[in-house]
Amino acid sequence: MNESLILDYIQLINTDGVGPVSFFKFLEKYGSASAALDALSSKKCIFSRSDAENELKSAQKLGVEIIIDQDKKYPALLRQLDDRPPVLYVKGRTDLLNYPASLCVVGSRNASVIGRKIASRIAYDLTNADVLIVSGMARGIDSASHKGAMYAKNQKGPTIAVLGTGVDICYPDENKDLYNQIADQGALISEFKLGQTAVASNFPRRNRIVAGLSLGVLVVEASLNSGSLITVRLGLEQGKDIFAVPGSPIESSSAGANKLIKEGAILTQSAEDILNTLALTQNRILKINQNVDLNAKPLDNLEKKEMMQTTKTQNAENSDILHIIGVSGIEQDDMIRHLNMTTQSALIKVTELELEGLVLRQNGSFLKLTKEGLKKIK
Question: Which CATH code of 3.40.640.10, 1.10.10.10, 3.50.30.20, 2.130.10.10 fits the domain covering 308-377?
């Protein structure tokens, strides 16, 4: 691809007040990115040519490829979006960007062991059936689906992670090993500049790419207020198939997926449910019965690791709560403010600790440790 054109694209998309939609409107109006930059130079603070050159050089040093929408490597599915990213940063396999069949998997960051296991199993079976798994490398369901995909094909399965940071930034930090493995076996992609750290507003924005790269959206464990439902909405707007794994009607973590099923999402219990639908609606030949063995147990080692990791995380969270409550006790609202989790997640944790006999609630909102709870912090 012409380097000068890539630099024009980097300059224009990083110019103040220019987003993906306005970028393409400027291209339509002025005929090219270069002409748009000339026309806007008197009105806007243009991202400098030298900064664009430094960005390109930094990407090359990191082994990151910058792909613009005029490049033949650019994902054909994304080209259908009016708000497609003009520039994509790719670390890893660019050939995966136009994979024949793909599905994105989304769900809770605070996923249960069962939820992770389901996501891993479905991702594993789909990858063996030549369906590429796309997700966002977040905690919980995202991570489990990436791991399941990479465990497939004799532990060489590909997967794509769409990041809400620069492609050179691993977020969350705990996923560093996963980040490196995806870079080796699959692809990490982002529309954000190198060095862009995690900003809350970036993640809903990246979800349109997650959905856009896929033929369908699978939801595993999502509450009614889950950010995963943003990806579902975007998927629906893009005309994608929506799949959802049902959960317990008394668990808030399953309320979002259950609601989607009521509204017409395809109830999904296994990879075969997805493969049958994609083969029908996309008129594709998929390996529905060749590689999907629902009785096989190749994921046992991975699932044990997932369970150990989940248990370790849960134990750490429980320990944090117990130490925050401390010997003197604490008001529930004050405790929640000290925790790095949502109010709902914190309340669920407290309830679990109450059931374990470690925490005692007084006057409705004051929390104290029981004798057993005190032993845990000593």
Answer: 1.10.10.10
